Amino acid sequence: MFKVTPNPPETDPDSSAFDKAADRALDFYLKPKPTEPTSDPGQLFTVVNGIDTECLLANLSETLASANAMVSDLAFELDGSRRHVALGIQQLIELGSLLANRALDNVDPR
After folding, report:
1. Confidence band (pLDDT; 50, 70, 90) for 64?
2. Do 36 and 89 form a contact (C-beta atoms < 8 A)?
3. What is the total count of domains within the chain?
4. pLDDT in tens, 28-43
5. Origin, by domain of life (predicted)?
6. Is the pTM of this model over 0.70?
7. Best exposed site among 10, 16, 55, 89 by fewest CB in 10 Å?
8. Within 13 Å of residue 1, how many CA atoms lie on the same side as its CB?
9. Rg, Å, the chain Cα set
10. Residue 2 forms part of a structural domain
11. Could you give the CA distance from residue 72 to residue 87 in angstroms, rounded to a whole number?
């Protein structure tokens, strides 16, 4: 049996505009433009912009407290001049912690 099929519709002469728009949309989602790095490529860690001073100082204080605990544990495992070096590092960390806590008190007096 022979079935009559309609001819395909004529293409609109303006269809090239639709093709260009479709290509732009697909390129936008499938081929994103590379973003320029905001920092040095060799820099591994960054601090997010817009963080308030109190939050930065609180995190600094906690980081110094953690470093102090690690060096303290290490110092008691060592003997001789190596122990003195570790205890010296611990004193520098403690001094930095005191300065950070004083700065934090100046930002947010309790």
Report:
1. very high
2. no
3. 1
4. 888 877 777 666 777 7
5. Bacteria
6. no
7. 10
8. 1
9. 32
10. no
11. 7
Q: How far apart are CA 21 and CA 32, in angstroms?
A: 16
Residue 7 domain-assigned (yes or no): no
Coil, helix or strand at residue 108 = coil
CA distance 31 to 33: 6
CB distance 66 to 94 below 8 Å: no
At position 28, the amino acid (one-letter code) is F
pLDDT in tens, 11-30: 565 677 778 888 888 888 88
Answer whether residue 47 is part of any domain: no
Yes or no: say if 74 and 86 are a contact pair by the CB < 8 Å rule.
yes
CB-based contacts of 108, cutoff 8 Å, min separation 6: 54
Under 8 Å CB-to-CB from 57, ≥6 apart: which residues?
100, 103, 104, 107
